[in-house]
Design goal:
Blueprint: H1 17-24, E1 31-34, H2 41-50, E2 55-60, H3 63-72, E3 81-86, H4 92-99, E4 104-110, H5 115-119, H6 145-151, H7 154-165, H8 170-183, H9 189-199, H10 202-205, H11 213-224, H12 226-240, E5 241-251, H13 254-268, E6 285-287, H14 297-302, E7 310-316
Parallel strand pairs: 1-2, 1-4, 2-3, 4-5
Antiparallel strand pairs: 5-7, 6-7
The structure holds S-adenosylmethionine (SAM).
């Protein structure tokens, strides 16, 4: 397949590939799901290691990313069995049903967005490029960032910025947004950046990263319902794992990592009741990484985007 647009600057450099492969252990007769294919970096490595002996299923909600990934499959000769699905990973069970697969041996979630999405100014993910305030990772997202900033109440916007961006100035930014949209609708990323810059007091900007960073993160999480999807895919994904199967999650900010840690912890906890008690439930997971695995200094130097990555792994228990 050849693409009619240039993606060379936007091919996403995959993070902690070796660690991911070691934990996922693709191999003979295994079924592996890459639930965040993106531009296919991890997928290609999985396929290379599996050498046609594993069944590999790829999912991404972004059809453009899947187009790129598919075009790159030609880079390797031993593609083996791979099926790609344009879906939200929260629908993992229905994807497996369509594929005729009951249980899987590995699930990879490399969360967040890809360089392909970030660098495409028409999608509005970046506060560094001017573009429409969209931020949808895929067509299944129900609203755009523009709809949120132009139609949600001041209180709802403040809540989103606080909950999903941990933004200290959430209320003030929300007030500035509402005042600005009373003059005219906020259409572009740069209009929003200017509003946030005006809202965050100059003295408070010292030592901070870009003043609009948290606002953009919060809107992206809200638009794509990222935390709800993550909760759902962990719950359903664990149910799809065969005994000894692993779920491998790479997260890039504290909200995601905290959620992964909490969910793994609660699925790995004893119910507190003896096995004979009607409320007894056996833990369904064993946490493999007691502490998150982080990238090496060399990887951070060669791929600065990996800096915030945290890798957590859990394994399905018998039961
Ligand atoms: C960090 S990128 C993955 C990069 C990929 N591992 C690689 O090596 O190229 C994250 C990808 O996950 C996808 N994604 C995020 N949330 C999703 C969801 N709920 N369902 C399906 N795909 C999702 C995004 O569209 C994006 O392409």
């Amino acid at each position: 397949m050849t693409l009619d647009w240039d993606t060379s600057s936007a091919i996403h450099q995959p993070v902690m590939v070796q660690e991911v492969i070691e934990f996922l252990r693709p191999g003979k007769g295994k079924v592996i799901v890459d639930a965040t294919v993106g531009t296919g970096g991890h997928l290609l490595s999985i396929l290379r290691v599996a050498r046609g002996e594993s069944k590999v299923i790829g999912i991404d909600r972004d059809p453009k990313a899947l187009e790129v990934a598919e075009s790159r499959l030609g880079e390797i000769s031993a593609v083996g069995k791979v099926s790609l699905y344009c879906e939200n990973f929260r629908n993992i069970r229905s994807v497996l049903d369509r594929e005729g697969v009951e249980q899987v041996d590995g699930i990879l979630l490399d969360l967040g967005f890809s360089s392909l999405q970030l660098e495409d100014s028409s999608r509005g993910f970046s506060f560094r490029h001017d573009g429409l305030l969209d931020m949808r990772m895929g067509p299944d997202a129900k609203k755009t960032a523009g709809e949120i900033v132009n139609s949600f109440s001041e209180g709802e916007i403040a809540k989103i910025l606080y909950q999903y961006g941990e933004e200290k100035w959430a209320r003030r930014i929300a007030r500035f947004i509402v005042q600005a949209r009373e003059r005219r609708p906020i259409k572009s990323t740069f209009e929003l950046v200017k509003i946030v810059e005006d809202a965050v007091p100059v003295g408070a900007r010292r030592g901070r990263k870009h003043p609009a960073r948290k606002t953009f993160q919060a809107l992206r999480i809200a638009v794509n319902e990222e935390l709800d999807s993550l909760k759902e895919v962990i719950t359903k994904g664990v149910e799809c794992l065969a005994s000894g199967g692993r779920i491998v999650v790479l997260s890039y900010h504290s909200l995601e990592d905290r959620l992964v840690k909490q969910m793994f912890g609660s699925l790995a906890r004893e119910s507190g009741y003896p096995p004979t008690h009607p409320l007894f439930t056996a833990p369904s997971l064993m946490v493999v990484t007691k502490k998150p695995v982080v990238p090496t200094r060399e990887e951070i130097e060669s791929n600065p985007r990996s800096k915030s990555a945290k890798l957590r792994v859990a394994e399905r228990r018998e039961g």
